[in-house]
Amino acid sequence: MLDFTRKEEKHVSLLLWQYLICIMIVAQAGCLHWFDGDEQDDEVPYELIKVGDPVSFSMPLPDLTKVYREKYKGDKLLSQSLAYRVWDFNKDGRYDLVEVINEKGDVELRAYDLDFDGKVDEVEHFNQ
Ligand SMILES: [Ca+2]
Question: Domain residues for 20?
Answer without folding.
Answer: 1-42
